[in-house]
Amino acid sequence: MQFNNLFSILPAAVLALFGCVLLLLRFDSSRPYLIFLAFAELLAAIGLWRQTDFLGFTGFRGAILIDPFGIAFNAICLVAGLICAVGAYRYMEREDEDHPEFYGLILLAQSGMYLMNSGTELITVFIGLEITAVSFYSLTGFLRSNPRSSEAALKYLLLGAFSSGLLLYGFSILYGLSGSTHYLNIASMLATRNSRDPLILMAILPIVLGLLFKIAAAPLHMWAPDAYEGAPTPVTAYLATASKAAGFALLLRLILGPLHDLRPAWEGLITFAAIASLTVGNLAAITQSSTKRLLAYSSIGHVGYILLGLVAGNKTGIEAMLLYLLVYTLMTTGAFLLLSALDREGVTDFRGLLYRHPGVALLMILLLLSLAGLPPTAGFVAKYMIFLSLVQARQYWVAVIAALYVAVSLYYYFRIIREMLHNPDDSPATLTISTGWRAAVGLTAILSLGLGLNPEPVLAWARSALR
Amino acid sequence: MDAALFYTFAAITLAGALATVTRRNPVHCALGLIFSLLGVAGLFLLQAAELLFAVQILLYVGGVMVLFLFVIMLIHLEQAARLRQYSRQWPVALAALFAVFLEIYVLAQSGLPGLPPSPQPRLNAGGNTERIADSLFYVYALPFEAASLLLLIAIVGAVWLARKKEQPQ
Amino acid sequence: MADNLTLILFLPMLGGLILTLLPSSKPVLVKFWANLVLGCNALWTLTLLGRFDATHDLQFIQRLPWIPSLGAEFFLGVDGYSMLLFAMTSAVGFLASLASWNAIDTRLKEFYVSLLILQSCVAGVFLAVDALLFFVFFEASLIPMFFLIAIWGGEQRRMAAMKFIVYTVAGSMLLLVGLLLLYFEHWRQTGFFSFSLPALWATKPEGDLGLWIFWLMFAGLAVKVPMAPFHTWLPDAHTEAPTVGSVYLASIMLKMGTYGFLRLVLPGVPETVKQANVLWWMSVLALIAIVYGALVCLKQKDWKRLIAYSSVSHMGFCMLGMFSLNPAGISGSMLQQVNHGISTGLLFILVGLMYERRHTREISEYGGLFGPMPAFSFVFLIAAVSSMGLPPLNGFVGELRILTGAFEMSVPWALWAGLGVVLTVAYLLWCYQRVTLGETSAKNLGLADLSGREWAVVLPFLIAAIGIGVYPQPAFDMLERPVKQIMEKVRPNYYAQSN
């Protein structure tokens, strides 16, 4: 019993412990911090791997569940955190803010994500969400001398607090209706209810809205472009991927668990959010002149695609969502990290990159092709799976709309590529690269191509995670 | 009798909250918040949650609010008092509020079908403290400990963001 | 080993990878290596053509597992139709590259690497017997093409490249959705997930589902062919692309659209294709392309743009033949696709040769080229006659077959198509007259005629054009079985009726 409890949160405990210890360390360069962080992530990964032998175990009276779903999402968050941290240290040095608190907060955020991914009890997941969110508020505002950073953090904090309140309100009504905060109990209590019950709606609406905020889906996406733009770029990479994945894990656990039979209550809102995200994300990205904002809006578009897996509602759809989140994490961390190497972030600052730094440009082209969803990249496989699930659910019109938006997104991704093809002229942006950065970006770009040519491993992984 | 007390405490809570939001003087706002919290404490008492009632007054009012007042009085906030109080969109906010109120009213009128009967406050059930301890340290042990981690992160973040950047030597 | 389609398919790409290791400082080495690889590729393909057995269906088959979870295999094979197209692709690709020996002077290595990758991708389209593999190559070929246009193209190259890729991808994604609908119908009927063409052909979806599949696939393929009114990307892409890009686009990539129609649409949703209003729409759109394309050609001042619009018109002929749903029309359409690749490829190469000399595409800048360049004018005459569809060249054979097929389907349509033929003769003769005949202006007096390398490039085209024109029977023999396969699905009673 004791062992169960400790074991079920071992990765989170390790991450939290190392995060706290990191706060106490003081070194001259940031490399030791990175080694420490990598070590922590390694231990957490080992913990996750050991967990695969103990599937089905619960800890803390049902608050944590060890299942392939949770392990898969935790793996995604772990990979995102490691890649972002490894690619970040030269950037933070350049900004003169490479302090241990940065790396410590990354680890602490990840322990919160663990609770979100594996938690099966309302209060646990809420605390996990708050831990992640508060860590990110600080990380977003980390560049203390940069007013954009502080403004981004403030906006994120205010809107985040509001949405957390909304979420908690929904949770409290859910508790009131079912008398328990544990998912299994809620599921059985709600099974007897009619899904058109106005009280159910009053519970589900705030919950879904609160979670839509977290994953930056329209119509609650307004914080994302500002927060992504103002935050230090590696933090943006981390925020756009790991935090989103954890938010999706929470949403999926709720929807596949207690709210499963109440589909009519949430499917309208989710469908609206999916199409709205696709529209807002893709159309707004076209006019952006800042690459960070462009990628932020494109992330909103990607969230729309992922939500379409829920709209389809079948097993293929959920598998597609998991696959998309993994591929999206790889592509987006790669893209944002690559962007972090440039000292300026406008689209026109990519001008002539193909001629000055052909290797870097090639990596960026690979990542952009994957983001756009062109074969033979992994991004195409992800979009393909979403289309597959929609067709299987006979949602033909939605599939057509999603397909057309791929062409729209091509326009702004290729705008960046076009800039790279221009002849190099005056005052190009300079590049600061480190070995870690090379490893991180190289890995993500190669995987984006490799997983596209041979997608079978990830397809099998997604299927096994949702057994 | 119960109903009268409920409405009284609810009124105190709401009035205090309104005062917090609308007053110009920060000290008045803090006092309004204190009243609001006292009202909530009263509501706890009505539900026979004696421990929460006591903890609410001790911790929230006695601890947190006093700290708030200290900070307010230490910092000179006259400029804040002269600033514009409301955002320009206050008509929209009022309309949204009205819509929510209408929704709740409609729901209430429909009799709130299917709501499980609210458990009556069990007077003389004894062991209020024990029951809360059981919840906190047994059923919800993990969220409780995680909450301490959350507070740590919040403190670290607050201190970090508020510190001035060290000047390079 | 000699029949290993996988090796032939990836040979150009492997050559490209090796090319990245060669030093950029030795341009001659780079050019030599790239052309060597493409030349070997072309020769190898021609030997395959020689060994092709017209009495069998799919040959040189290779079937490897690729994505078992989705039922997609790495399934390669050729039948008569794809063998002809593949042979044309390899040969034209090599010749276009050879023609560009002196045309490119910046980023030479990247240029040839893109070209080699492009060659592999387009080969993959014709060799794939698995629909997902087909689609992946279909889309992937857009990427090197985009770079070829955007980096080495003309003045407006970036806009043209963007238009090209956005327009095409919009259509292709809809094609993917349509393909998935067919794929799922197959699963519902058999319980198996498979993308292989023979499996998908057995599905025969009906009614509403068939209509959905048809129109979605139409959306994707119609942009590619291109069918009017989805052709607006073509003139810009063709004119702004470098010569080799234009040749690839016109000769090869447009055929991917018609190939898709003949491989996915006609055998995939035969019940829908037979419907009267679908046939009406397809025929009308084809005729609009024929006549409108030809009319627009008459007012073109840019030589390349004229040839680009002529492609729209010619592809309209192919579409008309295809949808007449009889052996004459379909075999004519298939052959005409190969012929168009030859004739238009040659035309673009000739324009490219002139551009290298005079650096202008304006027809008015030329005139009276017959004087200084008689050999060029002769070759240009052959190319124009081939494109016009006059005997004794290849264009005539294909067009005659198509018109026969159209006549069999509907006399009024055939008459409209005949009008198209007349207009084609008109604009090509007029272009020829303005460029080669008449007074030789001073600017054109000192131009050099065809060099040895340029002769080496155009000679195979001439041989093919004359050969197919004079003796088309072997080609038709190769096409007989594929045509029969399609006819059996679309009109099973056709052969019984005609007996």
Low-confidence stretches of chain A are none
Q: Please describe the biggest sheet of chain B, giving its number of strands, its sense, and whether it closes into a barrel.
A: none
Strand tally of chain A is 2
Radius of gyration of chain A: 21 Å
Biggest sheet overview of chain A: 2 strands, antiparallel
- Binned, the helix content of chain B reads over 70%
User: How far from one another are the termini of chain A?
Assistant: 26 Å
SSE order of chain A: HHHEEHHHHHHHHHHHHHHHHH
Strand content of chain A: under 5%
Tell me what the structure shows.
- The complex is a heterotrimer of chains A (467), B (169) and C (499).
- Chain A is built from 20 helices and two strands.
- Chain A is mainly α and 467 residues long.
- The two termini of chain A are 26 Å apart.
- In chain A, a hairpin with a 4-residue loop joins strand 1 (58-59) and strand 2.
- Chain B has 169 residues and is mostly helical.
- Chain B is built from seven helices and no strands.
- Chain C contains 22 helices and two strands.
- In chain C, a hairpin with a 4-residue loop joins strand 1 and strand 2 (72-78).
- Chain C is mainly α and 499 residues long.
- In chain C, helix 3 runs parallel beside helix 15 (327-358).
- Chains in contact: A-B, A-C.
- The A-B interface holds A 5, 9, 16, 20, 23, 59-61, 63-64, 96-97, 101, 104-105, 108, 111-112, 115, 121, 123-124, 126-128, 130-131, 134-135, 137-138, 141-142, 144-145, 150, 153, 176-177, 179, 193-194, 197-199, 202 and B 107, 110, 112-116, 138-143, 146-147, 149-150, 152-154, 156-157, 160-161, 163-165, 168.
